Amino acid sequence: MTATVGVVVFPGSNCEHDVVSGIERAGGHARLLWHQDPDLGDVDAVVLPGGFAHGDYLRAGALARFAPVMAAVTDFAAAGGPVVGICNGFQVLTEAGLLPGALQKNRGLRFVCATVPVEVSSTTTVLTELAGQGQVLALPVNHFVGSYTCDRRTLDELRAEERVVVRYVENPNGSLDDIAGICNPGRNVVGLMPHPERASDPLLGSVDGLVLLRSLLHAAAGAGAGAGAGAGPLLSAHDQPPISL
Amino acid sequence: MDDESLTVPAPGAVPAPGAVPVGADVHRALGLTDEEAAAIVAILGRPPNHVELAMYAVMWSEHCSYKSSRRHLGRLPTDGPHVLVGPGENAGVVDVGDGIAVAIRIESHNHPSAVEPYQGAATGVGGILRDIFTMGARPIALMDALFFGTLDDARTRWLMEGVVAGISGYGNSVGVPTVGGELTFAPGYARNPLVNVLCLGVLPVERLVLARATGAGNLAVLLGSPTGRDGIGGVSVLASAGFGGADDGAKRPSVQVGDPYEEKRLVEACLELLDRHLVVGVQDLGGAGLACATSETAGRAGMGMDVDVRAVPCREPGMAPYEVMTSESQERMLAIVTPADLDEVHAVCRRWEVRSAVVGVVTDPDPASGTGRLRILDGRGGHVLADVPAASLADDAPRYDRPLAPPRDLERRRADDPAALPAPADCTEDLLAMVLDPSWVYRQYDHQLFLNTVVAPGSDAAVLRLAAPGLPTSAKGLALSTDSNPRWCSVDPRRGTELLVAESALNVACGGARPLALVNCLNFGNPEHPEVMWQLSESVDGMAAACSALGIPVVGGNVSLYNESGGADIDPTPVVAVLGVVDRLERVPATVTLVEGASLVLVGGTRTELAGSRWAVERRDHRGGALADWDPHGHRRLLDAVVELVGRPGLLVGVHDVADGGLALALAELALRSEVGVRVGEVAGHGELFSEAPGRVVVATFEADRVVGMCRAAGLDARVLGEAGGDRVVVGDLVDVALAELRAAWRDQLAGALED
Fold first, then answer.
1. pTM attached to this predicted model
2. CB atoms B354 and A243 under 8 Å
3. What is the pLDDT of residues B564-593, one digit of tens each?
4. Judging by beta carbons within 10 Å of its beta carbon (0-12, 13-18, 19+), is residue A68 exposed, middle or buried?
C-alpha cells in the first residue's frame, strides 16, 4: 500500500510544500494538516516540517507545542505511529517532550545554510530503516538554532540505546557529540536538523534524502492504520489570540 | 472589528484641525521647499492644514516622487512582447510562457541601513516582498546587492554584520530563499552603505491584479500590523537627505522595525484572498504609509476615498491624524473589497491571525471638478481633517529639470589611461589581493527553500526551477543576476552602464537562459550637485542604449539619491538585474567549476583595456582612462552562442564570464570552486590578465575542437587557453600560485576580517 503522510502547518511553517514534494518523489502521498486540527484523520505518519512556527517567539517550538494538533500528534506517537520532526519540527518535538534534550543557537551565533555530510548512526528507526549503517548522506542544513544539547545522563542513554540516528561528519553548529538527529525509546519518533526533502531531486544536487523519506513511507505502511485511529478531538491548551478590534 | 461602511459627513470648508498659520515655515521642517508649499496652495485653492501638509511632504519627497529623476527615466525602453506590466506599478511583470508570469522589483534601503543596519536591511526585505505579492505573485526568491566601505574599518564591519544578519533574520524567517546577489567594498560607501534588495515572484497569468480602488462604495480594508509611531518621515527626513551631520544618529527613530512572522501570515492571507477573488485590488503600505496607499489606489482608478483615521488600529493611544496617515509601520496592506465579500475577507484573515479593519470607502469623483477627493475624517461622521485631490499627491508632485554638468577634468581624466602604468613585477600578488569567497554571506541565507534553486549563490547567475504551489507545471527555468560596477561608472557613467547591462545579460546566458527583462536601482549622490545629475543622465542613456541594442525591456526601477556623506557623493552606482528564461531545465547546467583534464576555451577576443578595472582602481589607485568599447551585435551573437553551448547536454563542464578582476580572477574562481588547478599558456601581458572588457567567457570542455568550431561558425573568436589540472594556478610567466595559498587568501578576505 502507499502510505499517506500528514504534514503539519503552523503559522510560520515554510517547508510544508517542500516536504509534500519530497514525500511524493519518494513514492508516497502527503496532505497538509492545520495546527488547529483536533485530530489527524487517517494518516499513516506525521511530519512536522521546517520553518519558524509562531515566529519562533519565546523559543523555537515553545508556542507550537500548545497547538491543538500537537495533542493528537502526541497520542499518535504514543500509539507507535511514525512521527518525524525536521529542523523546526525537531525543535517542536523537544519542546513537546516527545524527544529529550534541546536545540540551542549555533556555535558562532550565525545562521548556517549549507549541504553537509551526515552519517547514519542507527538503522533501526522509522527514518533510517532502509539506509545502511554508517552510510554518509549529503544533506542540507538550514538553521540558527540547531546545536543539540542535553544532560550527561540523557547523552549516556542516547548512546547506550543507539538513539543517535544521524551524526554530522563535519559539525556545522557545535552540536553535542556531533548529533544531527535522535529518536525516542520506541524508535518511532525521530527529530533531525538536516532537511531530507531538500535532497530529493537530481536538479537540487543530491538525492541522498530519498532513502530517509522512503524509510518513513516503509515504516508508515508497516505501522498500518492502527496508530492514528482513536486520536479524537482534544481540548486545546492554547487559545488563539483574539484579532477583533 | 468595524464591519460597516463609513458614514460620510457633509462636505465643508476644511482647514480647521492644526491649521498651518500663514507664513509659517512648517513645510520646511517637513522637507518641502517654499515653491512646493506654494504649489500645494495652488492645488487646494487655500492654505493646507497640517495633516494635508504632512501628506504632501511625504508623497512629494524625492524617494516617493522621483522628482529629480523622472524626466530622465522616460528615456528607458520599456516595451516588449512579453511585458505585461512595465514601470510605475508596484512591480514589473513579464509573461514567461506556460501560463506563468513573473513579477520582479528591486529597491534600495540605503539610508535606513546606514543608521540601523539590522532593521534597515530587514525592512528592506519586507518592503520588497509586499511589492511582489501586491501583484498577486508568490515571492519565490530574493537577491541583494550590498556595498560597504573597506573591512579595515570597524564601523563597516558593524554595518556589514548587521545588514547580513538583518537580511538573514527576516528573509529566512518569512520563508523566501535568498538565492544570490553581490558584494562590493570601496571606501566611498563607508558612511553611506548601499542595500539594494530584489524580489522575484511567480503567478498564474490570470491572477495578475493591479492596485486600483475601483467601484464607489467598495471598502478599503487595512490588513496586518497596527499602526505605530515608527518610521514617520522615513521617506523625507531620512531617505531624501544625505549624511554627514552630527545628528545622523538622531535619525534612527525614522527607521521602521520589521516582524517577519507578521509578514509571513500577511503573505499567506493576501495570496488566499487573491486566489479566492475576494479583493478588487490590493496595495502595500511602504514609504509614506496610508497617505500613499489610499491616494495611489484611488488616484490610479480616477476615484476618491474617504478614510476614517480613527478606524485605523493603532499601537498606542493619542496618535495624531498626521502620524497615522504617514507612519511607515511595517507589515500592512490595503485591500479594496466589495461589501458583499467583507465577511469572507475577515474570515480568511482570522484564520491566518491577521488583523483586518475597514478604514475607508471608495467614493465617486467630485461631479464639479471630475477629480476624486481623498478625505481624511475624524471618526464616522466626524470632522473632515483633510480634503485633497487624491491623484495630486502622486501625479502633481514637482518634476525638476536640475542642472547637470560633466566634471571639469573629464577630458584630462579620460586621457590618463592605465595602459601607461608600469607592468606589475608580480601579478600573483595582485591576484591574491582580489580573490574573495562570499560564502560567509550566503551561508547565512536560506538559499534552498522551495526546492527551486538549481544553481546556488556563487555562480554567474542563480538558476531556479519555475515552480510554486498553485502554479501550472512547467519545464522552464529562470536565471537571475544582479550586477553593478561603480568603478566603470565612475570612469564613464554612460559606457559603464552599457557594459553593466551587457555583463548582466551574459551572466544570465551563462546560466543557459535567454535574457528577457531588466530592473534597475539607480543609486547616486546628491541631485543638487550638477555632476551627480550628469552621472544619472549619462547612466540612463547608457542603460537605454544597451537595453535597446540587446532587446531587453526595462520593466521596473527605483532611484535612490542623496547617497552622500560629509559632502562627498558616492560613485555612480546603477544596479541592474537581468531576468532570463531557460527553455528546458532538465539538468544542472555547467557552473563555475572545473574537471581535471578539461580544456579551457576563451570565447571572445583578446582584450587588454584596463580603465576602470579592479587592477587599476583598487591595486593602483588609478581612476582614469577610457572604458573598453563593445559591439552590441557581437554581444548578441555571444549571448546566443553561450546559451547554445550551456544547453548542449554534457558539452561543457564549467563556464564563467570574464568580469571583475579579468581573466585572472575568472580562472582563479574556476579553480577555487572546484579545487582543480589550471595551466594556461601565454596571454597578452597583464593587460589581458586583468582587463574587464566585456564579451568574454571561459568554458571548460572535453570537446574543445567542437566548442571552438561552434563559436567560430557563429562569428565569434575562440581559442584554447590551456587545461584544468594539478594543484597550482599557472598563467604563462605572469601567475604561478599553489591552489592552497590562493584558497587561504580567498577564504581569509571575509571570514578573516569578520570572525573573531
1. 0.93
2. yes
3. 998 899 999 999 999 999 999 999 999 999
4. buried
